Amino acid sequence: MGKIITTGKVAFIGCGAMGEAILKGLLAANMTRKEEISVSLPTAARRDYLAKEYGVKTFSKNNEVVNDADIVILAVKPQMFDTALGEDVVAAIPEKATIVSIMGSVDLAKLHKIFKHQAVIRVMPNTPLAVGCGMTAIAPDDIASGSAVETVKAIFGACGEVVEVQESAMDAITAISGCGPGYVFVLIDALADAGVNVGLPRALAIKLAAQTFAGAGKMAVETGLHPAQLRDQVTSPGGTTIAGLHALELHGVRGAMYDAVSAVLKRNSELKGK
User: Fold this and answer.
1) I need a labelling partner for 50 at 20 to 30 A (CA). Which of 179, 220, 238, 254 fits?
2) What is the pLDDT of residues 103-146, one digit of tens each?
3) Are residues 91 and 184 located together in one domain of the fold?
4) Beta bridge partners of 12
5) Has residue 53 been placed in a domain?
């Protein structure tokens, strides 16, 4: 295990699937001690699970979890923003704390209407963070210190890749990497189903499909080659791969990706309007 990097006390407000992925990645990467992590959740069963599974302190009230926190991670759904962050909660957060928000449709301007004294960093991670292969974009505000930004980069960078971006890019990033694992899981499931359809056992088909996506992604990242170049490397003239690609084009797989991203951006706009 590597040396623990001091992040100070970390408080989670909410801890669903994405919050747990961050929590798991944080601990797996040895970034901080479990004794310095606190989680606030309204559901007793969920609190009991997280306490038993990860050894972290849990609270039922958001205003209690943030006491003395150095980093406050807002891991609630955007629709719960107003409910989770009442005046009592905001008043209890130390001015020294850095606010880290993973609420995709809540921008810095809206966050600063609530947090008038704390530095705020918007973060868009994805769930592969839990297995050390996350993709996280961060957009700090103008008052976040260099050390705070580096700490947040270290937290998420220990569990995958991190890019620092302008906030104007965050909505599009949400539609690509934030929601992207959902698209990929559907494609893995579909490819596995196709394998079962031609006679493969279910478990083998899933393993073949999942590892193929994992390996192809790794090749794209590590070689730095354009995806079209990598595609051409496995596409012989008149061969089997081009026949499969032709079928994908006929069924509009490429267009479906365009539509998926557009649908996310449309829904994002709707959520911002609420």
Assistant:
1) 179
2) 988 999 999 999 998 999 999 999 898 888 999 999 999 999 99
3) no
4) 39, 73
5) yes
Query: What gap in Å lies between CA 17 and CA 2, rounded to an integer?
Result: 26
CA quadruple 234, 238, 239, 243: dihedral, nearest 10: 90
pTM above 0.70, yes or no: yes
pLDDT of residue 2 exceeding 50: no
The three-state secondary structure class of 130 is helix
Q: What is the C-alpha separation between 67 and 91, in angstroms, rounded?
A: 10
Same domain assignment for residues 161 and 183: no
Q: Is residue 60 part of a domain?
A: yes
- Report residue 120 as tokens: 């705020």
How many residues are present in the chain? 274
Residue 173 within any structural domain of the chain: no
- Tokens representing 107 are 């921008």
What CA–CA distance (Å, rounded) separates 93 from 192? 47
Nearest to 109 by CA among 152, 200, 170, 61: 170
Q: Within this chain, do residues 151 and 232 fall inside the same structural domain, yes or no?
A: no
